[in-house]
Amino acid sequence: MRVLAAMSGGVDSAVAAALAVEAGHDVVGVHMALSRNRDQFRTGSRGCCSIEDAGDARRAADVLGIPYYVWDLSERFEETVVADFLAEYEAGRTPNPCVRCNEHIKFEALLDKATALGFDAVATGHYAQVVTHEAPDGTVSRELHRSPNDEKDQSYVLAVMGPDRLARAMFPLGGFASKAEVRSEAERRGLSVSAKPDSYDICFVADGDTRGFLRDRLGARPGEVVDTDGTVVGEHDGAYAYTVGQRKGLGLGRPAADGRARYVVDVQTSSNTVVVGPAELLSVDRVAARDAVWFTTPAAAAGGDPWDDAELQIRAHGAPVPVRVRATTGTPRRDGSVADDGGPGMELRLTGTPLRGVAAGQSAVVYRGTQVLGQATVADAWRG
Amino acid sequence: MTTPEVPAGAYLDHAATTPMSRAALEAYVAEAGRPGNASSLHSAGRAARRVVEESRESVAAALGARPSEVIFTAGGTEADNLAIKGIFWGRRRQDPRRTRVLVSAVEHHAVLDPAFWLAGHAGAEIVLLPVDDDGRVDLAALRAELAEHSDEVALVSVMWANNEVGTLQPVRDVVRLAHQHGVPVHTDAVQAVAQVEVDFAASGVDAMTVTGHKLGGPPGVGALLARRDLPIEAVLHGGGQERGVRSGTLDVPAIRSFAVALAETVAARPERAATLAALRDALVAGVRAADPEAVLRGPDPASDDGAAARLPGNAHFTFPGAEGDSLLYLLDSAGVQASTGSACQAGVPQPSHVLLAMGVTELDARGALRFSLGATSTRHDVDRLLAALPQVVERARAAGLVTGGFRAGGAA
């Protein structure tokens, strides 16, 4: 196969490219330039965007003996990932830019361009597994599964791509149980990135200072922090910078009357107000989500109970919790009806302990065991 | 052992670098095996010095210059930096009012960047001389600029031939205008020497950049030809080599190899230019037939006066709706090596400042591709390009619809 290996300059994508080469594929390395004004050198744990990273990717491609190109996807990145990041925060929601990047950049812009240029698949250094089933009639179905490496598993951020795009994706690191193993594979092949530190932060937010980035791009909008009675307990520079469930950085002058910790329980962008309250207000056991993507529709057996047993994960490294899930047409509402937006929705009822701090905008990914069933964006969460 | 390799596939990127000629490689290897610092006084040093001076005489003879006018450098970029910075400082020392640097808008970055560096660090004012649709410098703008600010102009720099679109500049006219005001002229002739007649003295320029690896010599060696009466300050300070203007131990094997390649190139030039022009014409006609939407940039060699207005080995096109990097990748995988022609930092293609200065839109500039022919080029190379091109352009356009900001139907 002709395989495009997306190479960030990090160790994971370098080893993924190496494995694709060794599997006998015709591999070309491509580094995506996602920022117009790139830093010369890598700083801290930002792991993709500096010119030094592009050089590391080029060096790895040279060691592997494969052609290497840089594709400038910075405009598309700004229009989709960064614009969505700003718009979601501005609307009081909590976006996951890595999910949007996989959705719009890696498995859309990059994948579609690769397909147009004649590539059969895009290989990335993600930790997730694709399980393929061939039916007796020859039709092939694909499942997305968690990596056996629990700590690194990235199925959560990949679920958004859906089944069609999965057919053109390769995750050569899917079977690796530890990062150390990947590093030693890199070392064994003479890839100099073998000891490069992992990246964690949002790549386009300098110094990991999300609030500073939002203030630069959206402007300061001072407002009030109130408690659930409406009493003003503090001030803020912009409600958009707060996330439901947040405890740190509230800068509240007065302690709560009962002396307990306070959390952000609501972000009201229309009145530019941040509402704080006790932890129990964050507990939810009902979640409604929009823009659902299904690998396997729950209760696929037609005519039966639409509710199915599964597990819900709400953060990149959050623990899965047991739920009942159903697919809806239109986004579910609290009263049990669905909105007439007509889009694919997802309704979730937690069956175990409630979750704390579920924010609109987060990705809800539903699993059964290691298998991803579907993904949607949280629209609302409440105590049923 | 000393046989140079011919590039695999169809190598259509001679403007980036040329394969070394056999004679140049042999000369390099022979000198690299001999000891001797050309600045030493003992016999090994004298032998090295003799090689350098013979090479200097050979370079001067090939370019219509005097040996004392040849300053060896480590290539074209260094020679351009020495010219722009050295002449700026030299002229300003004579008269502190001389702070204006006039450069054409289509100069190579090796000229533009030192000029803008002077603006940021040494109080220079940079005037970018506009060009016409073919990339030829606007002489009226130069005349007006000189008339208005003649006392303040430190130097003018206009290249002999453009590295992207191959346009030949009216260097003699530039010299005539500048000299009327006593202003010295530098020209970057890096792309020109292997393909058109270049005579330093006859052109009247005061300084000229040449380099080895564009004419069958090794990379990392070149020269600035500079008239002896030109005020020029050193950029590299040290042991005082090259009349104190360019310190550093002379690279004897590279200098000898460069001189051999240059002499060889100049001797073969009339015949080679005719061969390259015929190949280039076939290439241009073939590309136009393969893709009627392709737009030739620079003077049209099929027109009456166009053939004499651009380098015989250069063809440059923009392919509407396609991105240069897609074209490059697809051609490379078909065994054809070309270039987008523009500078890339970390490989990120930026729209070419040359094309933008010629009035090409940023969107059109994205689809640029330069084909450049040289001594080893054959009809087979051109045929291989033309055979691959239809599918390459079709696929690149399909990819352009996905991520290139191009919309179906042409305009975005």
From TrEMBL, chain A:
Q: Which GO terms describe its biological process?
A: tRNA wobble position uridine thiolation
tRNA-specific 2-thiouridylase MnmA-like C-terminal domain location: 338-378
Residues at which ATP binds:
A6, M7, S8, G9, G10, V11, D12, S13, M32, G125
Its Gene Ontology cellular component terms are: cytoplasm
Q: Which reaction does it catalyse?
A: S-sulfanyl-L-cysteinyl-[protein] + uridine(34) in tRNA + AH2 + ATP = 2-thiouridine(34) in tRNA + L-cysteinyl-[protein] + A + AMP + diphosphate + H(+)
Task: Provide the E.C. number(s) assigned to this enzyme.
Answer: 2.8.1.13
Record has Nucleotide-binding as a keyword: yes
Keywords from the UniProt entry: ATP-binding, Cytoplasm, Disulfide bond, Nucleotide-binding, RNA-binding, Transferase, tRNA processing, tRNA-binding
Q: Where primarily located?
A: cytoplasm
Read off the Pfam families from this record.
tRNA_Me_trans (PF03054), tRNA_Me_trans_C (PF20258), tRNA_Me_trans_M (PF20259)
* Annotated site residues (Interaction with tRNA) in this chain: H126, Q362
Q: Where does the protein end up?
A: Cytoplasm
Positions of region (Interaction with tRNA): 152-154
Q: Which residues form the tRNA-specific 2-thiouridylase MnmA-like central domain?
A: 212-277
GO molecular function list: ATP binding; tRNA binding; tRNA-uridine 2-sulfurtransferase activity
Q: Does the keyword Membrane apply?
A: no
Active-site residues, Swiss-Prot/TrEMBL: C101, C203
For this protein, the record's NCBIfam families field holds: PRK00143.1, trmU
Q: What does this protein do?
A: Catalyzes the 2-thiolation of uridine at the wobble position (U34) of tRNA, leading to the formation of s(2)U34.
Q: Which family does it belong to?
A: Belongs to the MnmA/TRMU family.
Q: What is this protein called?
A: tRNA-specific 2-thiouridylase MnmA
Species of origin: Krasilnikoviella flava
Automatic annotation (TrEMBL), chain B:
**Keyword Iron (UniProt):** yes
Q: Which reaction does it catalyse?
A: (sulfur carrier)-H + L-cysteine = (sulfur carrier)-SH + L-alanine
Asked if the Swiss-Prot or TrEMBL record annotates the protein with the keyword Iron, the reply is yes
GO molecular function, a single term: metal ion binding
Domain (Aminotransferase class V) spans 11-385
EC number per UniProt: 2.8.1.7
Short name of one Pfam family: Aminotran_5
Principal EC category: transferase
Kindly give the PANTHER family that the UniProt entry links to this protein. Answer: CYSTEINE DESULFURASE, CYSTEINE DESULFURYLASE FAMILY MEMBER
Q: Which UniProt keywords apply?
A: Iron, Iron-sulfur, Metal-binding, Pyridoxal phosphate, Transferase
Q: Which domain of life is it from?
A: Bacteria
Q: Which cofactors does it use?
A: pyridoxal 5'-phosphate
What is the name of this protein? Answer: cysteine desulfurase
Q: Which family does it belong to?
A: Belongs to the class-V pyridoxal-phosphate-dependent aminotransferase family. NifS/IscS subfamily.
